[in-house]
Recover the amino acids of this structure.
Protein backbone atom coordinates (compact mmCIF):
# COMPACT_ATOMS: atom_id res chain seq x y z
CA UNK A 1 0.00 0.00 0.00
CA UNK A 2 1.34 3.40 -0.96
CA UNK A 3 0.98 6.22 1.47
CA UNK A 4 2.35 8.51 4.13
CA UNK A 5 3.04 7.28 7.65
CA UNK A 6 3.58 9.38 10.72
CA UNK A 7 4.69 8.05 14.03
CA UNK A 8 3.85 8.00 16.79
CA UNK A 9 0.15 8.89 16.76
CA UNK A 10 0.37 10.45 20.24
CA UNK A 11 3.51 11.89 21.83
CA UNK A 12 4.02 13.32 25.29
CA UNK A 13 7.05 15.32 26.36
CA UNK A 14 8.20 17.48 29.22
CA UNK A 15 8.84 21.15 28.61
CA UNK A 16 12.45 21.85 27.64
CA UNK A 17 12.98 18.60 25.75
CA UNK A 18 13.51 18.38 22.02
CA UNK A 19 11.31 15.86 20.22
CA UNK A 20 11.43 14.46 16.67
CA UNK A 21 8.34 13.53 14.69
CA UNK A 22 8.69 10.96 11.95
CA UNK A 23 7.24 11.21 8.43
CA UNK A 24 7.82 8.56 5.77
CA UNK A 25 6.27 8.20 2.30
CA UNK A 26 6.52 5.44 -0.28
CA UNK A 27 4.75 7.36 -3.03
CA UNK A 28 8.02 8.42 -4.67
CA UNK A 29 6.95 12.04 -4.20
CA UNK A 30 9.55 14.78 -4.57
CA UNK A 31 7.98 17.39 -2.29
CA UNK A 32 7.17 17.03 1.41
CA UNK A 33 5.57 19.40 3.91
CA UNK A 34 5.01 19.88 7.63
CA UNK A 35 1.96 21.68 8.98
CA UNK A 36 0.72 22.54 12.41
CA UNK A 37 -2.98 22.57 13.26
CA UNK A 38 -4.39 24.05 16.46
CA UNK A 39 -7.96 23.39 17.66
CA UNK A 40 -10.56 25.03 15.45
CA UNK A 41 -7.91 26.45 13.14
CA UNK A 42 -6.59 25.77 9.69
CA UNK A 43 -3.19 24.49 8.65
CA UNK A 44 -0.06 26.55 9.11
CA UNK A 45 3.04 25.65 7.13
CA UNK A 46 6.19 25.00 9.18
CA UNK A 47 8.72 23.76 6.60
CA UNK A 48 8.68 22.24 3.14
CA UNK A 49 11.13 20.48 0.89
CA UNK A 50 10.87 20.17 -2.88
CA UNK A 51 13.93 17.98 -3.39
CA UNK A 52 16.36 15.95 -1.31
CA UNK A 53 18.90 17.96 0.69
CA UNK A 54 16.93 21.17 0.27
CA UNK A 55 14.15 22.73 2.35
CA UNK A 56 12.53 26.11 2.94
CA UNK A 57 10.95 27.80 5.92
CA UNK A 58 7.21 28.13 5.96
CA UNK A 59 5.15 30.69 7.84
CA UNK A 60 5.93 29.49 11.38
CA UNK A 61 9.41 27.91 11.27
CA UNK A 62 10.74 29.40 14.53
CA UNK A 63 11.48 26.70 17.09
CA UNK A 64 11.42 23.88 14.53
CA UNK A 65 14.06 22.16 12.41
CA UNK A 66 13.94 19.59 9.60
CA UNK A 67 16.21 17.47 7.45
CA UNK A 68 15.71 15.83 4.06
CA UNK A 69 18.51 13.32 3.61
CA UNK A 70 16.34 10.76 1.82
CA UNK A 71 13.50 11.23 -0.63
CA UNK A 72 11.09 9.17 1.45
CA UNK A 73 11.79 10.75 4.84
CA UNK A 74 11.24 14.26 6.26
CA UNK A 75 11.57 14.30 10.07
CA UNK A 76 10.55 17.36 12.08
CA UNK A 77 12.26 18.31 15.34
CA UNK A 78 10.33 20.46 17.78
CA UNK A 79 12.95 22.21 19.85
CA UNK A 80 12.74 23.66 23.33
CA UNK A 81 12.74 27.09 21.68
CA UNK A 82 9.20 26.52 20.40
CA UNK A 83 7.09 28.45 22.91
CA UNK A 84 3.81 26.63 22.44
CA UNK A 85 4.53 23.18 20.94
CA UNK A 86 1.33 21.37 21.92
CA UNK A 87 -0.57 20.83 18.66
CA UNK A 88 -1.58 18.39 15.95
CA UNK A 89 1.24 17.98 13.39
CA UNK A 90 0.54 16.90 9.83
CA UNK A 91 2.98 15.75 7.18
CA UNK A 92 2.10 15.87 3.49
CA UNK A 93 3.71 15.04 0.18
CA UNK A 94 3.24 15.86 -3.48
CA UNK A 95 4.67 14.33 -6.63
CA UNK A 96 5.77 17.73 -7.85
CA UNK A 97 4.81 20.33 -10.36
CA UNK A 98 1.12 21.02 -10.03
CA UNK A 99 0.00 17.73 -8.54
CA UNK A 100 -2.30 17.50 -5.54
CA UNK A 101 -1.02 17.14 -1.98
CA UNK A 102 -1.64 14.07 0.19
CA UNK A 103 -1.58 13.98 3.99
CA UNK A 104 -0.48 11.53 6.64
CA UNK A 105 -2.62 10.65 9.68
CA UNK A 106 -0.95 13.18 11.97
CA UNK A 107 0.87 13.18 15.32
CA UNK A 108 -0.70 14.80 18.35
CA UNK A 109 2.07 16.27 20.51
CA UNK A 110 1.42 17.28 24.10
CA UNK A 111 4.10 19.13 26.05
CA UNK A 112 3.62 19.68 29.78
CA UNK B 1 -5.95 40.29 5.18
CA UNK B 2 -5.60 36.57 4.52
CA UNK B 3 -5.00 35.36 0.98
CA UNK B 4 -7.74 32.76 1.39
CA UNK B 5 -10.95 33.34 3.32
CA UNK B 6 -13.29 30.46 4.04
CA UNK B 7 -16.84 30.72 5.39
CA UNK B 8 -16.23 30.03 9.09
CA UNK B 9 -19.25 27.97 10.06
CA UNK B 10 -20.06 25.86 11.90
CA UNK B 11 -22.77 24.61 9.62
CA UNK B 12 -25.55 22.26 10.73
CA UNK B 13 -28.00 20.76 8.22
CA UNK B 14 -30.56 17.95 8.17
CA UNK B 15 -29.79 14.73 6.33
CA UNK B 16 -30.56 15.01 2.62
CA UNK B 17 -29.89 18.76 2.41
CA UNK B 18 -27.71 20.39 -0.22
CA UNK B 19 -24.64 21.94 1.35
CA UNK B 20 -22.61 24.81 -0.07
CA UNK B 21 -19.09 25.47 1.23
CA UNK B 22 -17.25 28.54 -0.03
CA UNK B 23 -13.84 30.18 -0.22
CA UNK B 24 -12.67 33.47 -1.67
CA UNK B 25 -9.10 34.38 -2.49
CA UNK B 26 -7.17 37.52 -3.33
CA UNK B 27 -4.08 36.20 -5.12
CA UNK B 28 -4.76 36.03 -8.85
CA UNK B 29 -1.72 33.75 -9.24
CA UNK B 30 -3.67 30.86 -7.69
CA UNK B 31 -4.49 28.44 -10.48
CA UNK B 32 -5.03 25.06 -8.79
CA UNK B 33 -7.75 24.41 -6.26
CA UNK B 34 -8.38 21.55 -3.86
CA UNK B 35 -11.01 20.56 -1.32
CA UNK B 36 -10.12 18.34 1.61
CA UNK B 37 -12.31 16.59 4.17
CA UNK B 38 -10.92 16.14 7.67
CA UNK B 39 -12.57 13.94 10.27
CA UNK B 40 -11.82 14.67 13.91
CA UNK B 41 -8.26 13.76 14.92
CA UNK B 42 -7.40 12.52 11.41
CA UNK B 43 -5.34 13.81 8.51
CA UNK B 44 -7.16 15.66 5.70
CA UNK B 45 -8.16 13.54 2.70
CA UNK B 46 -8.36 14.95 -0.79
CA UNK B 47 -11.92 15.23 -2.17
CA UNK B 48 -11.61 17.30 -5.32
CA UNK B 49 -8.82 18.86 -7.37
CA UNK B 50 -9.59 21.37 -10.12
CA UNK B 51 -7.74 23.72 -12.40
CA UNK B 52 -10.05 25.48 -14.79
CA UNK B 53 -13.05 27.65 -14.12
CA UNK B 54 -16.31 25.74 -14.21
CA UNK B 55 -17.71 22.69 -12.49
CA UNK B 56 -16.23 19.30 -11.70
CA UNK B 57 -18.49 16.56 -10.43
CA UNK B 58 -17.67 13.38 -8.49
CA UNK B 59 -20.66 11.51 -7.16
CA UNK B 60 -22.51 13.70 -4.68
CA UNK B 61 -19.74 16.32 -4.73
CA UNK B 62 -19.38 19.21 -7.16
CA UNK B 63 -16.46 21.66 -7.11
CA UNK B 64 -17.04 25.02 -8.75
CA UNK B 65 -14.36 27.56 -9.62
CA UNK B 66 -14.95 31.13 -10.75
CA UNK B 67 -11.54 32.68 -11.38
CA UNK B 68 -13.00 36.00 -12.50
CA UNK B 69 -14.62 36.44 -9.09
CA UNK B 70 -11.85 34.60 -7.21
CA UNK B 71 -14.43 32.34 -5.65
CA UNK B 72 -14.61 28.58 -5.23
CA UNK B 73 -17.35 26.37 -3.86
CA UNK B 74 -17.95 22.77 -2.91
CA UNK B 75 -21.52 21.46 -3.14
CA UNK B 76 -22.64 18.29 -1.42
CA UNK B 77 -25.94 16.80 -2.61
CA UNK B 78 -28.07 14.48 -0.50
CA UNK B 79 -25.85 15.08 2.52
CA UNK B 80 -25.31 12.16 4.90
CA UNK B 81 -24.31 12.01 8.58
CA UNK B 82 -21.02 10.51 7.38
CA UNK B 83 -20.31 13.85 5.65
CA UNK B 84 -19.97 15.46 9.09
CA UNK B 85 -16.39 16.75 9.12
CA UNK B 86 -14.30 19.86 8.64
CA UNK B 87 -13.84 20.89 5.01
CA UNK B 88 -10.70 22.77 3.96
CA UNK B 89 -10.12 24.60 0.72
CA UNK B 90 -6.55 24.91 -0.58
CA UNK B 91 -4.95 26.50 -3.59
CA UNK B 92 -1.58 27.19 -5.15
CA UNK B 93 -0.06 29.13 -8.03
CA UNK B 94 1.33 27.87 -11.32
CA UNK B 95 4.86 27.80 -9.98
CA UNK B 96 3.60 25.48 -7.21
CA UNK B 97 5.87 25.23 -4.18
CA UNK B 98 3.47 25.65 -1.31
CA UNK B 99 -0.29 25.60 -0.91
CA UNK B 100 -2.38 28.14 0.96
CA UNK B 101 -5.25 26.75 3.03
CA UNK B 102 -8.50 28.20 4.30
CA UNK B 103 -9.26 27.84 8.01
CA UNK B 104 -11.92 25.20 7.40
CA UNK B 105 -15.69 24.94 7.80
CA UNK B 106 -17.09 22.37 10.22
CA UNK B 107 -20.20 20.65 8.92
CA UNK B 108 -22.66 18.57 10.94
CA UNK B 109 -25.33 16.58 9.13
CA UNK B 110 -28.10 15.55 11.50
CA UNK B 111 -30.06 12.30 10.90
Amino acid sequence: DGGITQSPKYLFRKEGQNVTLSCEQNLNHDAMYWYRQDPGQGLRLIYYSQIVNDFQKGDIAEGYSVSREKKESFPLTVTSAQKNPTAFYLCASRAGGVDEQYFGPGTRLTVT
Amino acid sequence: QKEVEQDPGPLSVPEGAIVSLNCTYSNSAFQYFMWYRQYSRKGPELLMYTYSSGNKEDGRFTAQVDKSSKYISLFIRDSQPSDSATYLCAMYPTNAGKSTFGDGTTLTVKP
About this structure: The first strand of chain B starts at residue 4 and ends at 6.
